[in-house]
Amino acid sequence: xxxxxxxxxxxxxxxxxxxxxxxxxxxxxxxxxxxxxxxxxxxxxxxxxxxxxxxxxxxxxxxxx
Length: 65
Hints:
It contains 3 helices and no strands. The chain is mostly helical and 65 residues long. The chain has one domain. The mean pLDDT is 91.
């Protein structure tokens, strides 16, 4: 759980901005987006295969193949 202490005389907008950045850094936003939608096992496998293929292509470009 992310917490941000509001300093004396600090505007609430600035504290909210710090809280949002801390949540992004901790990966809370990304985790919520991932869990917001149910993926069927077949969709999960397809997405994993596409990600692996993309990784292989970028590695091939880096090595010059």
